[in-house]
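Consortium newsletter contribution from the modelling node. Members have asked for a concrete example of what our holo predictions look like. Here is one, prepared for the FE2/S2 (inorganic) cluster complex that several groups have been discussing at recent meetings.
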Amino acid sequence: MAEAALRLCRADELVERGRAVAFDVLWRGEPVRAFALRFDGRVVAYVNRCVHVPSELDWLPGEFLDAERRFVVCAVHGATYEPADGRCVGGPCGRGRLQPIRVEERGGDVYWYPSPPVEALDFDAPGGPTSP
Ligand code: FES
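And here is the predicted structure:
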């Protein structure tokens, strides 16, 4: 069953080909970071995990795009992804693709939709990220 939308940020926080907004998700049962950015007017979001080696992509917090602001590039070995759909288009990511997350812009805000394998992190759950 699809889960309810979760508010991510104000829509105007995501400027065209600008810095991404980071958020936390549970991906395949593991707490990981995710990111949302605006590309060609549309908000897109992905799990922040390179297909090559499971490491985060950004070269500075929130900075995912290359110098020309055209592709998402991995800071580790330079894998290059198409921002519109997360497809690998160059470098060591092969035929891989970033894990997409469904997002929607509505009423001046951006929402994301947990859907397996990407789920909401429950910070209050026993054994959750904030548990002692
Ligand atoms: S970890 Fe991303 S290109 Fe190697």
